Amino acid sequence: MSAESLPLDRRLRQEILFARERVYRFGQPTPLERLILPGPEPAPEIWVKREDCASVKSYKWRGACNFMASLAPEQTACGVVTASAGNHAQGVALVAQALGIRARVYMPRSTPRVKQQAVRHHGGEWVEIILSGDSYDEAVTAARADEASTGSLYVQAYDDLKVMAGQGTLADEVVLSGHGPFDAALLQIGGGGMAAGVSTWLKTYWPNIEIIGVEGNGQNSMQVALEQGHPVALDRVDIFCDGTAVRKAGELPFEICRDTIDRMELVTNAEVSHAIRVLWETLRCISEPSGAMGLAAVIKNRAALAGKRVLIVLSGANIDFRQLGLIAQTDGDTHTRTLRVRIPEQAGSMLALIDRCFAGLNINDFQYGKLNAEEAWPIFTISADKPEVLQCLPAVLDAAGYQWQDLTNAIDVTFRAIPLRGDLLQSPAFLRLDFYERTGALHDFLSQLVRDHASICYFNYRQTGERIGRALLGLDFNSATQRDHFLSTIPEQGEGYRSCKRIDQDALERLIGR
User: What sequence ranges are listed for the domain ACT-like (predicted)?
Assistant: First the structure.
């Protein structure tokens, strides 16, 4: 019986065995590391396959190496061409340089520079990067057009038997590690190549293992394919987890996954961001968003998985450094609520609100600009470790007699659009305040230095995770004499704060429109 006549799953197992000989010419096995979830609640025993430790910082080298190493010289005479959001391209580049094969890589114009630079690093003069389109699908279309016009061979990112088999070698390393058997494996899915190869190999040795496919909200192409009975193109794809942002699941991966995946799990961007934080705080590694999706699903199902031995794959660490700020803001660990509260426009009213209603809570964000001579509506984003604390906050405000509005996820708050009417100010002063980031520090500053001197007319502060909190603070005085006396007597450093400096006149005039 020829190999081509075998069922697809048997052919895939056979190809994984062949891949053992090919892929390790280009890279080394990656470690399997234990992760202990923080917190007192029961948790599963988690083992992390550290594909971020590979030379290209993702598992994608395995499939590209297995495919390209199996090609005959006549197949690569015109070079190869591929499309990639970044990680697959690095695998192709690695092999292209090692084997002396010319490669053209089409990448979306929005591809992070860190991934472009990595492709150039691994491919050298053998690789040409062509930025085309605004999405992965548009890059694929351009690469396919190149294939048709030049006769170059197209290197699939996931929809190929040898590519899937190459990815399956990471499961082979898990089996040989001695840390199994595992009760469950949570595998992130983009096109499905890794999930197909890994699930096939794990089920071969541990038939009772539960395979859970993990996709992000807004990019659930495999879930839709399994529901519809065939791959279906999504109308729109969320790209926060860019490594798995695939509009349509691969045909071959779907054929495998419909038999090996026991159930699907969707995770939010906030849950993924929190998982990235947990990986940093436990293993001191930084994952790209798609790399943390498996852990996000574990944390989401912590109680149900408690006591089980589970496997996750940290599939990559190719992340633009600038994205870390967004991830920190999106972290779904602490529960937050954004509220707009009405207070009288008079000295001490802001501090009274904090004393009466926000005592002991963490103020993550504080936005306010004076717009009315009689009343103020400052905006606070409050966080708490337990959701019930925030659920009770409206009742606390009601009991204290405050009017309030819930502005959680409001677009103007997200983009920090803080209006201010300069014509309502009498003798303003704006200060750059750096205070020690601890519970009560901001309250202490306001209590000591502001209560008896002025009213707050502007506040712009957002928690960044540093030991020092930084805020732009506007104070309005009844007279220039009061203002000048305050500015001449306030120490630049004091109890609870590191620095308090007046901003220059040009910046003041831009703020208040004078």
Answer: 337-409, 429-504
Domains 3-58+161-330 and 335-512 share a fold: no
**What contacts 73, CB < 8 A, 6 or more positions away?**
none
Q: Which of the residue ranges 15-19, 49-53, 202-206, 359-363 would you say has the lowest mean pLDDT?
A: 359-363
| Structural tokens at position 288 | 């790209």
pLDDT of residue 3: 63
At 378-398, the pLDDT tens digits run 999 988 777 788 888 999 999
SS3 of 413-464: the string is HHCCCCCCCHHHCCEEEEEEEEEECCCCHHHHHHHHHCCCCCEEEEEEEECC
Q: Is 351 helix (H, G, I), strand (E, B) or coil?
A: helix
Length of the chain: 514
Closest CA to 218 of 194, 234, 198: 234
Q: pLDDT tens, 276-311? A: 999 999 999 999 999 999 999 999 999 999 999 999
pLDDT 10s digits, 225-241 = 999 999 999 998 998 89
Q: Which of 49, 57, 60, 115 is catalytic?
A: 60
Active site residue 135: no
Closest by CA to 192, choosing from 210, 228, 219, is 219
Q: Which of these is catalytic: 300, 315, 370, 455? A: 315
| Phi, psi (degrees; rounded to nearest 5) at 115 | -75, -35
Question: What pLDDT was estimated at residue 514?
Answer: 55
pLDDT tops 90 at residue 186:
yes
Please report, for the chain, the start and end positions of each structural domain, with discontinuous segments joined by +. 3-58+161-330, 60-154, 335-512
Contact 411, 341 (CB under 8 A): no
Residue 161 has pLDDT above 90, yes or no: yes
Q: Around 61, how many Cα atoms within 13 Å sit in the side-chain half-sphere?
A: 30
Q: Is residue 347 very low, low, confident or very high in pLDDT (cuts 50, 70, 90)? A: confident
* Helix, coil or strand: residue 131: strand
Beta strands of 231-320 (E only): which ranges?
A: 263-267, 309-314
CATH code of 60-154, in short, is: 3.40.50.1100
**85 near 241, Cβ under 8 Å?**
no
**Which pLDDT value is given to residue 333?**
56
Q: Distance between CA atoms of 80 and 282, rounded to whole angstroms?
A: 40
Strand partners, 376: 343
Task: Measure the CA–CA gap between 269 and 216, rounded to whole angstroms.
Answer: 7
Give the Cα separation of 46 and 34 in Å (integer): 6
* pLDDT surpassing 80 at residue 444: no
Q: What is the mean pLDDT of the chain?
A: 90
Q: Is 60 a catalytic residue?
A: yes
Residue keyed to tokens 């495998």: 256
CATH no. of 3-58+161-330: 3.40.50.1100
Superfamily of domain 335-512: Biosynthetic Threonine Deaminase; Domain 3 (3.40.1020.10)
